[in-house]
Write a structure and sequence with these properties.
This protein is α+β, with helices and mostly antiparallel strands. The chain is built from 28 helices and 34 strands. The chain is globular. The chain binds one RNA strand through helix 7, helix 10, strand 19, strand 20 and strand 29.
Length: 833
RNA sequence: GCCCGGGUGGCGGAAUUGGUAGACGCAAGGGACUUAAAAUCCCUCGGGAGGUGACUCCCGUGCCGGUUCGACUCCGGCCUCGGGCACCA
C-alpha cells in the first residue's frame, strides 16, 4: 500500500479483479432474490458525454448497492444503434451508417469499461444486429396476423427539393434544414400499431405503478387523455352527407353557432373544389410543420366553406368553417363551436364576427360579460328548450339521451392517444417485414430476418433501399409470385420498447424470449432521462402487454420502479455540442480517476434534478477521496493487526466495558451509527447526494476523535475500526475502486465486492438525554436538555422554567403548549386578557 | 398554446414530507507549515442592527395573499426558468 492515492493504478487493479472473477455475470440459478437494474441504453453517438456519465453512474450505484444488500443483480448494457444521426454522419463523412455506428460502439464500450460500471457485458445488445431485430420482425408479423397492425395515410414533412421526408427537428422555421425549401405536409401510407386498443389498460395500470414518480404518471395519463363525451351527427344541408363531431359538453349543444373542420377533413377538401379561396387556405395550411406545438402556437385562422349543417335538435342552419387549429387526428376532425362557453371558440367568433349565443348561466345567477370572455364553468341551462334549468351534468345526460332517441348521436369515449405510426421512410432502421404482392396484397414475411444491406452509399436523397432491386425484389411468401418488399423501416422506438426483455436471453436463437425473461422481468429499477417520460415509456409498456398476450412474458408491466434523472448543465444551460459548452469526461478521468468523476456526479445534485457542472466541485470530490486514503493509511498498521486478530478470534474488542467509558467516546460511536442509519435511508429513497454528505461527515468525525486516555486505547481503536469499515462500505457503490483497494489493504474480510452491508446498533444509538428546541409563538427562544423518556408535562415544566424562556415571556401568559416529542416545545403566549 | 416540473446564501445543494432554514461541499477572506510555491491543516463565512465580550434582537426559502400554535413544506393567484407535445433519441 502506498501512502499516496494513485487512482489510475488502483482503478486498473480493481477492474482487473472484477474481470478475473467475473463478478458481474448474472445467472438465473442463484437462490438470492433477483434484482434487475437497467439504465436506458444510449444512442452510440461516438463518445461518452457527461450526461452518460451521470446517468450510468446513478444506475451503477443502485446495482452495486443492491448487490451489497444480498441480491442477485443483473445490470446489462447495449446500444440503441439505429437512428437519424448515423444517416447525417454518413452524408457528412461519406461513410456507410453501419460502419460509423460500429466504430462508435467500439469506442464507447472502452469508455464505459473505464468508468468501472458493474455491467454484465456478456449480455450486450446492439439493435442494428440482425440477430436482435429479426425477432422484432417476427413479432411484427405476429401482430400483423393478429390484426393489430394496419396501414393508413398519415402526414409527414416533405422536402420538395431533397425529395425526402424530414423529421420535425430537421424543419427549421418551416424550411428543410439542408435544402432551405419550404416544407409541405404530405399524406403517405404508413403502418400503424393499434396502441389505442390498449388505451384503457395502459391508463388503468398506471395506478399499479406505485414506484414511479407521480409526475411521470400524470404525464402518461394526460397523454392518453381519456374523455367521456357524446358524438353528435349534424346532417349537411341539401345533401346526404352527415357530419360527425365529438364533444365533452353536450349541455352547450343549443349554443352552437358554427362548426369548424380540420383542413384535412374530407368535407373541407370537397368544398374547396368549387371554392378557390378555401383551396388557397387549405394550401396555406400545408405549410405548417406536422408538430402539434407549431399548430397550437400559430395565429388562429379560418375560412367559411359556404356549406351549412342542420342542428340535430333545433333544425337551425349552422355555417361550416375550416379552421387551422382543429386536429384531424383527434375525435372526428370536426368540432361544434360554442363561443359563449369555450374560450378558443370565443376568440375565433370575435375574430370572424360570428354570433355568440349564451345557453349556460352561472349557478349563483351572477352576471357575465360575453363580449369579453366565454363562461366555461358548469352552470344552469337557458335557451335550451325543454332542457332549461337543468344543471350542466344532468343536461349532458339528458341531451345525449335525446340525441340517441332521435338517432342523431351516441355516447362515446375518446382518447387523445393516437395509434403508433411505426413506418419511417429512412434507410438506417429495421426493415419492415412485409411483402406487397399484386395478387395477395400485403403479406408478412416468413423468411426472417429481412437483413438491411449495410454496405451502401448514402446521399440523403431518398432511401437507398428504394433504388436496390436486389433488396426489394422478392417472391410472395403466400403465392410464390413476384412481389416487392416494403422499403420503409421501423421507428427506432420499436427496438427500444422490448430490449429490456431480450437482455435476459440475448443469445437465444430459437425464439424471441424464453423463461429467463420471466425470471428477470419486470425490471426492478429502471433509470433514464425525464425526456422519455411519455413516449418511450408508453411504447415499452404497450409492447410489454403485446408480449404478454403472445405468451412471451407473464407480467403486466415492464418496469417496477422508475427513476428519471435530470440533465447536466453548464452555466445554467444544457451541455451540447452545438452550444459548445460540453465538458469531456475522458481528460477528467485521466487527471483525477473514475472514482472522482463518479463521486462528483453523484454528490453535486440529487438524481432527479438537473446537475450544474463545476470544475472546482470535481477538485473537492478528489480532495475528499485523498483524505479517505490518508485516514486509512494513518491507521493501516493498527487496523491490519486488529483485523488479523478478529480472524484469529483474539481481538480485545469483546472485552470493552461500554458502561464505564467516557460519554465523549460513546457520543462519537453514536454519531457513526446515526450517519449509517441516515445513509441507509437515503440509499433506499435514491437520494445519493446526501449519502455522500454522510460519508464526508463520517470522515470529518473520524479525523477529529477526541483524545483518548491510555485506558481508552481499545475503545478508540474500536471506533476507528467500526467507523472506517462503515465509511468504506457506504462509499463502495459510489467510488468502488478506492474502496476495493483500501478494504483489501486494511485486511477486512473478503473482497469489497462481496462485503456485507453494515448492520446498525441499537445500543450505540441509545441516548439518555435529548436536546429540545423551545419556541414561543413559533419563534426559537431557547434549547433545553431533558431525559429522553420525559413525559409531556415534565418537558413543559422544564421549558417554562428555562431562564431564556422566562425572559422572553416577560408579561405574557401561557395560553397553550404544544409538545413534539424529541423535537420541540412551542409555547403559545399572549397578553393577559 | 397544452401537459409536467423547478426557483432556498457568492455557487451546488440540505432540511426524513407541517416542527431548530442554510447540513455537506465549492468559492472567498484570515492564519499555520514552507526560502518560496503546490499540497495539507486550523478559523470565519445569509443580510441588517446593537454590545468590550461569551452574546442579543430584527429580517430572510421567486412575488402577492390565505390556512395553522408553527409554512421552504399545504391552498389560491402571479412571475420566471426548464422538460414533453407523436419522424431527435
Amino acid at each position: 500500500m502506498n501512502d499516496l492515492y494513485n487512482p489510475q493504478e488502483i482503478e486498473r487493479i480493481a477492474q482487473e479483479y472484477w474481470e478475473a472473477h467475473q463478478c458481474f455475470q448474472a445467472d438465473e440459478k442463484s437462490n438470492k432474490t433477483k434484482f434487475y437494474c437497467l439504465s436506458m441504453f444510449p444512442y452510440p453517438s461516438g463518445y461518452l458525454h457527461m450526461g452518460h456519465v451521470r446517468n450510468y453512474t446513478i444506475g451503477d450505484v443502485i446495482a452495486r448497492f443492491q448487490r451489497m444488500q444480498g441480491k442477485n443483480v443483473m445490470q446489462p448494457m447495449g446500444w440503441d444503434a439505429f437512428g437519424l444521426p448515423a444517416e447525417n454522419a454518413a452524408i457528412q463523412n461519406k461513410i456507410p451508417p453501419a460502419e460509423w455506428t460500429y466504430k462508435n460502439i467500439a469506442y464507447m464500450r472502452t469508455q464505459f469499461k473505464r468508468m468501472g460500471f458493474a455491467y454484465d457485458w456478456s449480455r450486450e445488445i446492439t439493435t442494428c444486429d440482425p440477430k436482435y431485430y429479426r425477432w422484432e420482425q417476427w413479432f411484427f408479423v405476429k401482430l400483423f396476423e393478429k390484426g393489430l397492425v394496419y396501414k393508413k395515410n398519415a402526414e409527414v414533412n416533405w422536402d420538395p427539393v431533397d425529395q425526402t421526408i424530414l423529421a420535425n427537428e430537421q424543419v427549421v422555421d418551416g424550411r428543410g434544414w439542408r435544402s432551405g425549401a419550404l416544407v409541405e405536409r404530405r399524406e403517405i401510407p404508413q403502418w400503424f400499431l393499434k396502441i389505442t386498443a390498449y388505451a384503457d389498460e395502459l391508463l388503468n395500470d398506471i395506478d399499479t405503478l406505485e414506484q414511479w414518480p407521480d409526475q411521470v404518471r400524470a404525464m402518461q395519463r394526460n397523454w392518453i387523455g381519456r374523455s367521456e363525451g357524446t358524438e353528435v351527427i349534424f346532417p349537411i344541408s341539401n345533401s346526404d352527407v352527415k357530419l360527425t363531431i365529438f364533444t365533452t359538453r353536450p349541455d352547450t349543444l343549443f349554443g352552437v353557432t358554427y362548426i369548424a373542420l380540420a383542413p384535412q377533413h374530407p368535407l373541407a377538401k370537397q368544398a374547396a373544389e368549387k371554392n378557390p379561396a378555401l383551396q388557397q387556405f387549405l394550401d396555406e395550411c400545408r405549410n405548417i410543420k406536422v408538430a402539434e406545438a407549431d399548430l397550437a402556437t400559430m395565429p388562429k385562422k379560418g375560412v367559411n366553406t359556404g356549406l351549412t349543417a342542420v342542428h340535430p335538435l333545433t333544425n337551425e342552419i349552422i355555417p361550416i368553417w375550416v379552421a387551422n387549429f382543429v386536429l384531424m387526428e383527434y375525435g372526428a376532425g370536426a368540432v361544434m363551436a360554442v363561443p359563449a362557453h369555450d374560450q378558443r371558440d370565443h376568440d375565433f367568433a370575435k375574430q370572424y364576427h360570428l354570433s355568440i349565443k349564451q345557453v349556460i348561466t352561472p349557478l349563483d345567477d351572477s352576471a357575465w360579460d360575453f363580449s369579453k370572455a366565454a363562461f366555461v364553468d358548469d352552470g344552469k341551462l337557458i335557451h335550451s328548450q325543454t332542457f332549461d334549468n337543468l344543471e350542466s351534468e344532468k343536461a349532458c345526460a339528458a341531451i345525449t339521451d335525446a340525441l340517441i332517441a332521435a338517432n342523431k348521436g351516441q355516447r362515446k369515449i375518446n382518447f387523445r392517444l393516437r395509434d403508433w405510426s411505426v413506418s419511417r421512410q429512412r434507410y438506417w432502421g429495421t426493415p419492415i417485414p412485409i411483402v406487397n404482392c399484386p395478387t395477395c396484397g400485403a403479406v408478412g414475411e416468413k423468411n426472417l430476418p429481412v437483413v438491411l444491406p449495410e454496405n451502401i452509399q448514402f446521399t440523403g436523397v431518398s432511401s437507398p433501399l428504394k433504388t436496390m432491386p436486389e433488396f426489394y425484389k422478392t417472391t410472395c411468401p403466400k403465392c410464390g409470385g413476384p412481389a416487392e418488399r416494403e422499403t420503409d423501416t421501423f421507428d427506432t422506438f420499436f427496438e427500444s420498447s422490448w430490449y429490456y426483455a431480450r437482455f435476459a436471453c440475448k443469445n437465444l436463437e430459437t425464439a424471441m424470449l424464453d423463461e429467463r425473461a420471466n425470471y428477470w422481468v419486470p425490471v426492478d429499477q429502471y433509470i433514464g432521462g425525464i425526456e422519455h417520460a411519455v413516449m418511450h415509456l408508453l411504447y415499452a409498456r404497450f409492447m410489454h402487454k403485446l408480449l404478454r398476450d403472445e405468451g412471451l412474458v407473464n407480467s403486466d408491466e415492464p418496469f417496477k420502479r422508475l427513476l428519471t434523472q435530470g440533465m447536466v448543465l453548464n452555466q445554467g444551460i444544457k451541455m451540447s455540442k452545438s452550444i459548445g459548452n460540453t465538458v469531456e469526461p475522458a481528460p477528467l478521468i485521466d487527471r483525477y480517476g473514475t472514482d472522482t468523476v463518479r463521486l462528483f456526479s453523484i454528490f453535486a445534485a440529487p438524481p432527479e434534478q438537473n446537475l450544474e457542472w463545476s470544475d472546482s466541485g470535481v477538485e473537492g470530490a478528489h480532495r475528499f477521496l485523498k483524505r479517505v486514503w490518508a485516514l486509512a493509511y494513518e491507521n493501516r498498521e493498527a487496523l491490519e493487526k486488529e483485523n488479523k486478530a478478529l480472524k484469529a478470534n483474539t481481538s480485545r474488542f469483546k472485552t470493552i466495558q461500554w458502561e464505564n467509558t467516557d460519554a465523549k467516546q460513546r457520543n462519537v460511536l453514536r454519531q457513526v451509527y446515526e450517519i449509517l442509519e441516515q445513509a441507509q435511508y437515503d440509499y433506499d429513497r435514491l437520494q445519493f447526494n446526501t449519502v455522500v454528505s454522510g460519508c464526508m461527515k463520517l470522515l470529518n468525525l473520524l479525523t477529529k476523535i477526541p483524545e483518548a486516555t491510555h485506558a481508552e486505547a481499545d475503545i478508540q481503536l474500536y471506533i476507528i475500526h467500526t467507523g472506517i469499515s462503515i465509511l468504506l462500505r457506504l462509499l463502495a457503490p459510489i467510488a468502488p475502486h478506492i474502496t476495493h483497494q483500501l478494504w483489501q489493504d486494511l485486511h477486512f474480510e473478503n473482497a469489497m465486492i462481496d462485503a456485507t452491508w453494515p448492520a446498525s446498533s441499537k445500543s450505540a444509538l441509545k441516548m439518555d438525554h435529548v436536546e429540545l428546541v423551545v419556541q414561543i409563538n413559533g419563534k426559537l427562544r431557547s434549547r433545553i436538555q431533558a431525559p429522553s423518556d420525559a413525559d409531556q408535562k415534565t418537558l413543559e415544566q422544564i421549558a417554562l422554567a428555562d431562564a431564556k424562556v422566562q425572559h422572553a415571556m416577560a408579561e405574557q401568559v401561557v395560553k397553550k403548549v404544544i409538545v413534539v416529542p424529541g423535537k420541540l416545545i412551542n409555547i403559545v403566549a399572549g397578553a393577559k386578557s
